[in-house]
Design goal:
With about 120 residues, this protein is of the alpha+beta class. It contains two helices and eleven strands. The N and C termini lie far apart (about 45 Å).
Length: about 120
Amino acid sequence: MITRRALIIRGGAAGTGALFLWTTPAEAAAGPVLSKTRSIPVGGGKILKGKYVVTQPSKGTFRAFSAICTHQGCTVAGVSGGTINCPCHGSKFSISTGAVVRGPAKRPLTRKKIKVSKGVISLA
């Protein structure tokens, strides 16, 4: 006779196996999708989900940063003129490196590791 506990464990293991088989190796290796490459303008960028900034400083080069300003924790509001701009106190950060271009912030934006594959940008 199979106990209730054994049945639950076997069912969970089978479900996990089926989910693993359903996911391709590329999907399993990549993190959450941030954007399609065509949505990020060359020389600019976009704020995504209020958490990330994805930029394309030069054609085919993509960068991602935290969207939280290092000065006082405001969410940056836009990307223009080669900088990521915070509306709260006017800090500006480089779209290439996240470095401070104009304060009052003193620390760069936190850079995020990304993977670009088949026109899709995802967290690494």
